[in-house]
Structures are given as structure tokens and as C-alpha cells.
Amino acid sequence: MTDSRRTLLARHQEALDLFSDRVHAIRPEQWEAETPCAEWTVRDLVNHLTVEQLWVPPLLEGSSIGELDDSLRGDHLGKHPAAAWGKAAGAAHAAFAASGALGRTVQLSYGPTGAEAYCSQMTADAIVHSWDLSRAIGAEERPPKALTDFAVLEFGPYAGDLSESGVFGEPVPAPPDADAWEDLLARLGREPRA
Q1: pLDDT per residue over 133-166, tens digit each?
Q2: What is the mean pLDDT of the chain?
Q3: Which of 66, 164, 165, 187 is most buried (most C-beta within 10 Å)?
Q4: 160: helix, coil or strand?
Q5: So what's the pLDDT on residue 2?
């Protein structure tokens, strides 16, 4: 395995760990709280990230989005949301870390994509959604520098275009003194400062 792939897997695990820390910090009364993601509660956000992780093993095994779409709709958190998240996150990381997995091609909604690029996208997405969850529950919002740098590098070139996909909100103005992380959040439709 190359050094760049080892680093990618390390960032992926760190991003999942960050989101996990936030999931375990959710108080019972916060599951229905609003998040920076329009129309999503905390539970909806955690379910979204959980479902994203559930896609990873079958996609890396050759399944397509179309084959899996119906089975991964709806709520996958059940009565034990943190446990459901943890199981899905662990399986996703193990799938990416499996021998040869990052050299494969996966069939995403927008076409064939290298698994390494898919892992990068999933890592950056978990970082941004960790910020969303942190904001929603009142936790420390700023991820570690290695993760903010990773997200800026991954999403930076096309962040403003992501609102067209419906996955992220319309860009908002960044504060005049915004750093690269805050600028990215603004381009992803988030108010970087409370």
C-alpha cells in the first residue's frame, strides 16, 4: 500500500472517530434538535451518515447504487442509534482498508469512480457533517487541523457546485476574515460562526 493510501485511511478513521465522539455526546433530548442541514434533525443527520457507511462494503464488492437503493432507504438507527452508527462506520472503514480495495472502481450515482476518490469524498463528508452535528449539540465545532485541511483540499475545488446536487445548501457569504475552513463551510451553505 502506498503512503498516500495509508494517509487517506488514517484521515478516514480520524473523521469517523470525530463523528463517533459527537454521536456519543448526544443527549436524549437532542435527537430531535435542528441541525445546520435544512430539514434534518440530529437523528436524521446521524442516520444519513450511517446509511452512507452502509453503502461502502457492497459498493466495494461490485454492487451498484441502483441495486442497493431500496434496501438503504429509511431509518437504520433503530432503538440504539450510537451502536448502529458504530457498526456501520466500522464496517465501512474495514471495507476501505481491505487489501486492494482502494484500487477498485465503484459505481456511484454519477458513474464509475475510483475507490480512492470515493474514500476521499466520504472522509471529507464525515468531517463537514461532524461540524454540523457539533453545531447542533453544542460541542466543539472545529475539527483538528489535519481534518480541516483534508476537507478543504477535497471539497475546495468544487464546493460551490455541490448545492446543485441537493446534498449541500446554497453558498452563503463567508466572514471577511474567514480562514480556508470557514470559507469552505460558507461555500457549502453553512454559517461558519454562530
Answers
A1: 999 999 999 999 999 999 999 987 777 777 776 6
A2: 93
A3: 187
A4: helix
A5: 93
Contact 95, 9 (CB under 8 A): no
- CA-closest candidate to residue 42, choices 132, 170, 141: 132
The answer to whether residue 125 scores a pLDDT higher than 80 is yes
Q: How confident is the model at residue 90 (pLDDT cuts 50, 70, 90)?
A: very high
Beta strands in the chain (DSSP E): 105-108, 111-114
Query: How many Å apart are CA 137 and CA 154, to the nearest integer?
Result: 26
173 alpha carbon, distance to own chain's centre = 23
C-alpha cell at 105: 472502481
Q: CA separation (Å) from 171 to 142, 144, 182?
A: 19, 23, 12
Residue 130 sits in a domain whose CATH number is 1.20.120.450
53-73 pLDDT, tens digit per residue, is 999 999 999 998 888 877 889
Total tally of structural domains belonging to the chain? 1
Does the residue 193 lie in any domain?
no
Q: Per residue in 169-194, is it b (16+ CB within 10 Å) or e — as a string?
A: bebeebeeeeeebbbbbbbbbbebee
Domain range for 38: 3-144
